[in-house]
Automatic annotation (TrEMBL):
Protein name: V-type proton ATPase subunit a
Transmembrane portions of the chain: 420-443, 464-482, 545-563, 583-600, 629-652, 757-778
Superkingdom of source: Eukaryota
Coiled coil region boundaries: 99-126
UniProt-annotated location(s): Membrane
The species this protein was found in: Sesamum indicum
Primary residence: membrane
Family: Belongs to the V-ATPase 116 kDa subunit family.
Lineage of the organism: Eukaryota, Viridiplantae, Streptophyta, Embryophyta, Tracheophyta
Amino acid sequence: MKYIDNLPSMDLMRSEKMMFAQLIIPVESAHRAISYLGELGLLQFRDLNDDKSPFQRTFVNQVKRCAEMSRKLRFFKDQIHKAGLMPSPHPVSQPDIELEELEIRLAEHEHELIEMNGNSEKLQQTYNELLEFKMVLQKAGDFLVPGESHSEETELDENVYTNNDYSDTVSLLEQEMQPGPSNQSGVKFISGIICKSKVLRFERMLFRATRGNMLFNQAPAGDRILDRASNEMVQKTVFVVFFSGEQARKKILKICEAFGANCYPIPEDTTKRRQITREVLSRLSELETTLDAGLHHRDAALTSIGFQLTKWMNMVRREKAIYDTLNMLNFDVTKKCLVGEGWCPVFAKTKIQEALQRATFDSNSQMGIIFHVMDSVEPPPTYFRTNHFTNAYQEIVDAYGVAKYQEANPAVYTIVTFPFLFAVMFGDWGHGICLLLGALILIAREKRLGSQKLGSFMEMLFGGRYVLLMMSLFSIYCGLIYNEFFSVPFHIFGTSAYKCRDATCSDARSVGLVKYRDTYPFGVDPSWRGSRSELPFLNSLKMKMSILFGVAQMNLGIVLSYFNARYFSSSLDIKYQFVPQMIFLNSLFGYLSLLIIIKWCTGSQADLYHVMIYMFLSPFEGLGENKLFWGQSVLQVILLLLAVIAVPWMLFPKPFILKRLHTERFQGRAYGILGTSDIYNDEEPDSARHPHESHNEEFNFSEVFVHQMIHSIEFVLGAVSNTASYLRLWALSLAHSELSTVFYEKVLLLAWGYDNFIIRLVGLAVFSFATAFILLMMETLSAFLHALRLHWVEFQNKFYSGDGYKFRPFSFASLTDDDD
């Protein structure tokens, strides 16, 4: 035991030791101190104003200002994307500016952009109206040519103007509604333009409203035109409606307004139409020039903003995070200082003190920042220092539950056991090489992909690149053991140990195999492939191998529970949990694993099913031909008795001992003799907590007893079900192998049997598709999920509570775009 205690501690085995600290910061150096702590990223602040709403906090006005600047920056970003520009990811180096100056500059840029957008929209609207008017003049004029001789008499009221100079009139839409001298006789017309999709309904409505007393002519406008309502380029149709009477005119105008049709006045006189057309074309040319100049000016303004946009967004994001953190501190008005509390790792104490001293010096404060360690009743957060390689495995464990403070971390063992159990189910060194190539590509492009915003699937794949690397390497290893390369065996490590008894053997591959030399040195002998006994042999091998791996991993979990109990000084957990659990599991399934190994070593034909079943049904009967070693019957009886004794050993002693200790503690005969993980969860060494808080808790014997009973029953039943659960290693390995064989023999070899290039090409394409999408994607995902379940349920439930919470320090590095 002393040897174990003297071993050096592993960084990832247990979470970092934490301490609870209080900071007293003068107001003049508060902003700089929080900024330096954000750059350091090793202090998790506690919200001391949790009872206040966001609008009641001290720095609410500064937070509002930062939120308003974030809104303006998002507006600039949207405008840059709409303009088809890209903000520079690497801003041009310019001198730093203060927040107040940035606020003024952003307000100026926003005002300028809004003004430019407003002018551009007005010019664009006028341009669209003139473009529609030009099309109406061109198309509608064709319908008015026959009436040219009496144009002076039949012209519409709204088309007669007192001033013949069209260029001096008001806007086009106002001209449409301009009243003129009454002309109650003759045929009138209204011309305009409407979306092509509405033409049929529009014509039907006009026909019904005028009771058929109208003539509707239409012609396609040709080019697509921007629709005002939907702001999209659509096909439009020019129309001219001939009618008679003032009532019909009012009805038609209302229908045009309802359908979103734009009406334009067209004179019947050809000379006037030509004059108006020339004026419209002239104004269109001027507007195009003006719009291009405005667009160029706007793009130049957005480009200049884009060079600094990333820098400004980071600056505002940091300032907002600083003021949000300052709002978590308690403001002491009398002493003009801020009081904060939080958690930090013990190793970071010196770094934090240096950062605070630097903040005091840089802010020219007369009073230094006070940093001192306090006790806390709250449990500390859990913090593991990980790197690019170990982070993905830690995330796999944390997805089940964050480790309790200082308990054993399963991620240390998951780094090896997770990819290995995956490979047991996915063993094929051909498929493993494909996965390895994918993992190496992701790792080679790590810097470039890490700086890009990836999709959800690619982000998950990139985050697990080192998990994929380990899974591929273990898959190659297991594939070499299984001797499978896309289901094809190879004589990699020498020739086979078997040969055919006669000439027909090489054709049938079913009977007559004779062992004529030493056993194949590594993995499965390639001669098993295709023989009649291939499936029974591989089934037996993989099933027994799965049981061995399962029992080994469950024993590892129970051993880790011992180290947890030893670390937390809980001798009850060692005596009445660890010891009976080890006895129960190994009396049954440890014994089964021993029989499997002995059978492999001796080549015995004993039926292990019969041995295990009759160990319970008839423990005193002889084993007969199923006997593997001397004294086996006596050993079975002893192991069965130990398994039976282990159940009440787990169930009864611990609750009664806890009750006795609790009674003695409050009678004054014993104080703090023994702390266990069941009642005194909060009492852990070096946790900086009040040790007397838990003494006032009421001891509920029935609750403790029921909890222990549930735990014992769960372990006893789980020992059986968990061992059976590891048989999924055998099942998925067999399924993967058989699927590979089917695709190889029934697709690729079948197509290759035809002397036709196209059939061979199709067969190769189908085989490649099946390998890529079924074997490399679906089977990979399936094996990954099953390996995940084996770790979460079968392994971690033996020792891992997972009821802690993560250490989330205030850090600028963890800020994202969502924090805006």
